[in-house]
Amino acid sequence: MLRGDSRAYIVTVDVPGATWLGAASLIPFAWAGGLIGRRVGDRLGVEAATVLALIVLIATGLYTVVAAARLALS
After folding, report:
1. Could you tell me the pTM of the whole model?
2. DSSP codes of every residue in 19-74
């Protein structure tokens, strides 16, 4: 049995540094989105916040599927 958290090592092996930098560059945007979402959520009712969250998630999912399909077909 290995000692320590070997899973973290396994996950980070063979991941290019540019990928880590790209992921780190998104942290400020995630933080800002959280702040904006918190303020908007305080002003909206539960139902409206739920609908807005679903719209954003569905749009993101559709974009991902279209981008993947475009790559698969090219």
Report:
1. 0.53
2. HHHHHHHTHHHHHHHHHHHHHHHHHS-HHHHHHHHHHHHHHHHHHHHHHHHHHHH-
Distance CA(69)–CA(74), nearest Å, equals 9
Same domain, 16 and 33: yes
DSSP letter, residue 4 = S
Domain that holds residue 55: 45-74
Element spanning 11, H or E: helix 6-12
Q: How many Cβ atoms are within 10 Å of 25's Cβ, its own excluded?
A: 9
Q: How many whole angstroms separate alpha carbon 68 and alpha carbon 59? A: 14
- pLDDT tens for 27-60 read 999 999 999 888 888 898 888 988 988 999 999 9
One-letter amino acid at 52 equals L
